[in-house]
């Protein structure tokens, strides 16, 4: 993995609300879903663990985890896809935008981290 990999984030374009940015710090993987995931997208048609985002070298990929309501990139149903800056990624009906480079880096500096990490189970 390259130290020069661009900053990246996934922005959930919430209906009727402010967009919610999930900074993708490190290599991941980052799981997307409704429960016990790093990127919490609380929409009824999103599976509990719907998809995974992972970085390979300097590229980000989305992998559908056999979700009921599928993952789409720019309208096409995918089981796995390499993401590019500005791609629209849909988990069920939840619409997100993948951002890299200067835009994602500038936004990450001004936004509070939005990723939701699972809590450690009680000992």
Topology:
Layout: E1 8-12, E2 20-23, E3 30-33, E4 39-40, E5 51-56, E6 59-64, E7 71-73, E8 76-78, E9 80-83, E10 88-91, E11 94-100, H1 101-110
Parallel strand pairs: 3-4
Antiparallel strand pairs: 1-2, 1-11, 3-5, 5-6, 6-9, 7-8, 7-10, 10-11
Write a short abstract of this structure.
This protein is mainly beta and 123 residues long. It is built from one helix and eleven strands; from the N terminus they run E-E-E-E-E-E-E-E-E-E-E-H. The chain has one helix at 101-110, and strands spanning 8-12, 20-23, 30-33, 39-40, 51-56, 59-64, 71-73, 76-78, 80-83, 88-91, 94-100.
Provide a descriptive summary of the structure in words.
The chain is mostly beta strands and 123 residues long. It contains one helix and eleven strands. It has one helix spanning 101-110; strands at residues 8-12, 20-23, 30-33, 39-40, 51-56, 59-64, 71-73, 76-78, 80-83, 88-91, 94-100. The strands form two sheets. Strands 2-1-11-10-7-8 form a six-stranded antiparallel β-sheet. The longest helix has 10 residues, at 101-110. The radius of gyration is 14 Å and the shape is globular. The protein starts with 7 loop residues before the first strand and ends in a 13-residue tail after the last helix.
């Amino acid at each position: 993995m390259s130290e020069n990999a661009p900053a990246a984030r996934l922005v959930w374009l919430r209906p009727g609300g402010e967009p919610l940015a999930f900074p993708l710090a490190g290599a991941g993987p980052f799981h997307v879903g409704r429960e016990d995931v790093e990127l919490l997208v609380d929409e009824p048609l999103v599976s509990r663990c719907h998809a995974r985002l992972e970085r390979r070298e300097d590229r980000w990929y989305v992998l559908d985890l056999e979700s009921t309501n599928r993952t789409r990139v720019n309208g096409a149903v995918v089981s796995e896809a390499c993401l590019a800056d500005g791609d629209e990624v849909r988990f069920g009906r939840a619409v997100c935008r993948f951002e890299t480079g200067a835009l994602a880096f500038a936004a990450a500096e001004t936004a509070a981290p939005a990723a939701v990490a699972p809590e450690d189970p009680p000992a």
